[in-house]
Design goal:
221 residues; alpha/beta; Rossmann fold; 7-stranded mixed β-sheet
C-alpha cells in the first residue's frame, strides 16, 4: 500500500514539474532578436520601445545614446549611477561595458528583463531592484554621481516625476559638483521653470530628438 502512495506522489510531482516547465516556456517575451539586435516591444506588439546590439553591447536609439554618452564624457566622475526605469536594459549594458569603473543600481516596478540584462554585464557591478521608482527615491539615503530617469506610461511620463517632493529628493541624491540628473520626457515638453524650484546652482541642456523624445540634462555646478 505504501508503495502505491509513494508512486502516486511521484506521479503528481512529475505532473506539476511538467506543467511548470510548459508555463515558463509559453510565457510571452516582450522582446525579439533580429540582426544581432534585441528589440523591446510595446505591450500591444505593434511598436518598439528600445533596442541594443548584442555584439557591440551598445544602445541603438539616438535618445538612449545621448543619455549614455553624457555619462561617458568623463569616466572618472560618474562611477555610481542610479537608473529609474530599466525597460530592456540597453543603457545599463552599454554603460557597464564602456566604463569598467562604473557601478549601477537599476530600479523598475517590473523584473521582466532582469535575467536578460544580467547575461551581458559584470553582475558584480550591477544591482537590480524590483520596486516602485517613486518610493525608492523618497525612502533612499543613497547618493549618486548621476541619476537617469527614463520612465513612461505610454507616451507620457508619470506625474510624480515633476512633483516638488520627488525633484527635491533627487537634488539631495546628487549633492556634488558635476553630478547629473538625466530625464527623458518622451513626447511631453517640460516647462524648465519647474526645475528651478528644486535645483540650485545648476545648468540645463535640452535635446529634442526626431523620434519625439525630450531630454533634459541637469548638471550641478
Amino acid at each position: 500500500m505504501n508503495k502505491y502512495i509513494i508512486l502516486l506522489f511521484c506521479i503528481i510531482f512529475l505532473f506539476l514539474l511538467i506543467n511548470l516547465y510548459i508555463y515558463q516556456n509559453k510565457k510571452k517575451k516582450n522582446y525579439i532578436i533580429k540582426n544581432n539586435e534585441i528589440i523591446l516591444l510595446s505591450p500591444n506588439l505593434d511598436a518598439e520601445y528600445s533596442r541594443f546590439n548584442i555584439k557591440t553591447k551598445k544602445c541603438t536609439h539616438l535618445y538612449c545614446l545621448q543619455m549614455v554618452n553624457e555619462l561617458l564624457l568623463n569616466k572618472n566622475k560618474y562611477k555610481k549611477v542610479l537608473i529609474l526605469g530599466i525597460a530592456l536594459g540597453g543603457q545599463i549594458i552599454h554603460l557597464l561595458n564602456s566604463n569598467k569603473n562604473m557601478y549601477i543600481t537599476g530600479v523598475d516596478i517590473l523584473d521582466d528583463n532582469f535575467d536578460l540584462i544580467r547575461k551581458y554585464v559584470d553582475q558584480d557591478r550591477l544591482k537590480l531592484i524590483k520596486y516602485d521608482a517613486y518610493k525608492y527615491v523618497i525612502n533612499s539615503n543613497e547618493t549618486y554621481d548621476a541619476i537617469i530617469c527614463d520612465i513612461s506610461i505610454g507616451a507620457n511620463i508619470p506625474k510624480f516625476i515633476l512633483t516638488k517632493k520627488f525633484l527635491n529628493k533627487i537634488n539631495k541624491m546628487i549633492p556634488k559638483s558635476n553630478n547629473k540628473f538625466l530625464l527623458n520626457s518622451i513626447e511631453t515638453k517640460i516647462d524648465t521653470s519647474i526645475f528651478k524650484k528644486s535645483f540650485t546652482n545648476y545648468y540645463i541642456k535640452y535635446n529634442k530628438n526626431e523620434d519625439g523624445n525630450n531630454l533634459y540634462f541637469i548638471t550641478k555646478k
